[in-house]
Amino acid sequence: MSHLGDRLSALVDGELTGAERDRASAHLASCAQCRAEAAQLRALKQKLRSLAEGAPAEAAMTRRLISMTGPGGPLPPRRRPLRVVPGGRAGTRGLGASARPVTFRSRPARRRYLFLGTVSLVVGLGTAAFTAGGGGQAAPGPKITPPVELYSVQHAIITGEVPFSAPSSRPAWHTFAPGSGASAP
Amino acid sequence: MFTLSCAQSRRRSRPPRLLAVALAVTVPGCLLTACSGASGSPHDQESAASQAPAAAGGSAARPSSARAITLLTQAARAAIATSYQGQELVSRWGNSGETILVSNIWHISGGQTVTQTVAAGTHSSGPYLSSDTDGQAPEGVLGVTMPLVRLLQTHYAVAYAGAGTVAGDNNRPAQVVEAWRENGTLAARFWLDDATKLPLEREVFDPAAHLISEDVFVNVRFGNPAPVHPPAGGVTDPQGPWTDPLSPGQLLELRAHGWLVPVGLPGGLSLFAGAKTQTGTGTALDLGYSDGLSVVSVFEQRGNLAAGLSGWQKTTVDGHVIYAAVPDQRSLTWSSRGMVYTVLADAPTQTVNAVIGALPHDSPPGFWKRLSRGFKRLASWVNPFR
Questions:
Q1: Given an 8 Å threshold on Cβ–Cβ distance, is B120 in contact with A174?
Q2: Which of B339, B62, B96, B304 is nearest to B182 (CA)?
Q3: How far apart are alpha carbons B79 and A162 in whole angstroms?
Q4: What range defines the domain where residue B50 resides?
Q5: What's the whole-model pTM score?
Q6: In the CATH hierarchy, which fold is given to the domain comprising A1-83+102-114?
Q7: CB-side exposure of B46: number of CA atoms within 13 Å?
Q8: Using an 8 Å Cβ cutoff, are B231 and B253 in contact?
Q9: CA B322 from centre of chain
């Protein structure tokens, strides 16, 4: 008894017609081995069909995920052409009978840019304010350079010593007015 | 700041810079005689004296002697009542090392005192003159004044150390008086002229027995001092005059007007003098603090330090950023809360640092305070109506 061979796959694919299909079916009825092979071929074909149907959706999802998590910071604005077909599938926006490409920016991207802009503004202003807020508190009053010579003479008065400051670049003559004050002669 | 390492090493092993300077400004023969003839004088015992405080560190406190107090009181009066002239050599050891001042001094009994500084360290330039027209200020010689003598006997044990001679002035006979701390360390030693009691020499030691200042009065002549003439080149006046000394009550009243008037400062310093003056930038207040030996003047003036302080350099004392006048760094200044503080001190480094730490300083603002201040400043910068 000869088995079906190549005709088995043709049978599973529905490619046999007429007398050939009848003879193949009669052989399957009497041959357990060919029935088992035919069952395996059908199961394999079913799996391949299911894979072929799910692949486009998964590929699109993968591309989207990669684009969202890719390095280099925020994504540049991307314009996606959409060809809208009248009466198209759910999830597409019908814009009329004349199908033409349309573009739009996704709402999450706009929120992201708004958030980043706000953060940058706050950080920039805060840094500027922190820098500007440094240094001493400018209390009201004149800007003073301590008169060392005057102070040195007064210090000498209360210590009973000679003024111990570096001599000025020009001769200085100090008199002490009655009662202790210093004045020009 | 105020490291003494370099200066200390020099202090121990001098032939004194003082005498070297004196040699340059006085009659060479006289000073050579003084240097060679110092044997047996108290000055000759200086190295031993400098060591003495450390050796006596554990000894009991000494009682004050009535004779010593009497001698110092006589010395303070003699500085006013005696006519004299001579040269005063002042040495100070601070953070910038040794600084020497050489001055000619004339004084008429009960009247005018003229001080002409002819050299100051390595920065000799034009003479610096001062005079006292009424004999009241400066009223003392080598820091021996009546107020300071009173404070000295309050804070130290004043002891009579016997007779001696002053090395720098032809072995002139002198009476020696010492001031001791409670812990038994030597704080100061005075040589008083045997005949007039005028102070002729003074040494001051810090608590670690380091010599921090030495004043010597040489070539002294008594009676009929030479007439005083201002130098050629005109005269200058630092500004002033200062008011009469303020009474304790007046000083305390200043607090009500926003002045800081502590009655005491670290190191046992008591408020003993005060005066005010008008400067080009407002009123300046001087507060004098002393324990009889160390004297600290605190000057206050309302305002803020100028942005570019010429002749001052930034330094840090006790964690506070302040400015020190160059080159001797004896004047220290900073501003806090709208007041400029300037400190001049004849005191040990530890005392000066403690005084600076006790006076107000601006603390760095916190994060939020600084941020708030910065936003206000930014707003003021962009405010077109400001």
A1: no
A2: B62
A3: 13
A4: 5-222
A5: 0.60
A6: Arc Repressor Mutant, subunit A (1.10.10)
A7: 25
A8: no
A9: 20
Q: What is the pLDDT of residues B145-169, one digit of tens each?
A: 888 899 999 999 999 999 998 876 6
| CA distance to B169, B206, B245, B262, per residue, from B248 (Å) | 40, 29, 9, 11
Cβ–Cβ < 8 Å for B21, B115: no
Strand order of the sheet with strand B269-279? Answer: B264-265, B269-279, B282-290, B295-302, B339-346, B331-336, B320-325, B312-317
Sequence ranges of the domains in chain A: 1-83+102-114, 148-183
| Rounded average pLDDT over A65-76 | 56
Please state, in angstroms and rounded to a whole number, the distance separating the CA atoms of residues B134 and B109. Answer: 10
* Inter-helix orientation angle B17-25/B28-36, to 10°: 150
A·B CB contacts under 8 A: 293
Which residues are B250's β-sheet partners? none
**Is B349 within a domain?**
yes
Given a contact cutoff of 8 angstroms between Cβ atoms, the answer to whether A162 and B130 are in contact is: yes
Measured CA to CA, the distance from residue A185 to residue A176 in angstroms comes to 9
Is B168 a domain residue? yes
Strand A172-176 to A182-183 pairing: antiparallel
- Nearest Cα residue to B289 out of B268, B275, B310: B268
Please determine, for the modelled complex, whether the ipTM score is greater than 0.85: no
CA distance linking residue A154 with residue A163, whole number of Å: 8
CA distance B286 to B271: 11
The string of pLDDT tens digits covering residues A127-166 is 888 877 766 556 677 888 898 888 887 888 777 776 554 4
For the cut 80, the answer to whether the pLDDT of residue A176 exceeds it is: no
Query: Does residue B77 form part of some domain?
Result: yes
Encode pLDDT of B70-83 as tens digits: 999 999 988 888 88
How far is residue B270's CA from residue B288's CA, in Å, rounded to a whole number?
A: 8
CA-based nearest distance A126→chain B, Å: 7
Query: What pLDDT, in 10s, does the model give residues B182-219?
Result: 999 999 999 999 999 999 999 999 888 889 889 898 88
Min distance A117 CA to chain B CA atoms (Å): 20
Q: Give yes or no for a contact between B119 and B21, defined as CB atoms under 8 angstroms apart.
A: yes
More confident residue, B353 or B54: B353
**Cβ <8 Å between B281 and A170:** no
Distance between CA atoms of B296 and B273, rounded to whole angstroms? 10
Residue B304 has pLDDT above 80, yes or no: yes
- Give the list of residues 6+ apart from residue A164 with CB closer than 8 angstroms, or none: A152, A155, A156, B90, B92, B99, B101, B120, B328, B330, B346
Closest Cβ–Cβ partner in B231, B273, B344 for A151: B344
How many Cα atoms are found within 13 Å in the side-chain-facing hemisphere of B325?
Answer: 19
* Contact between chains at B241 and A131 (C-beta distance less than 8 A): no
**pLDDT at residue B136, as a whole number:** 43
Q: Which amino acid is at B148?
A: L
The dihedral sign for the CA sequence B325, B330, B331, B334:
positive
Nearest to B301 by CA among A113, A177, A175, A146: A146
Question: Same domain for B91 and B167?
Answer: yes
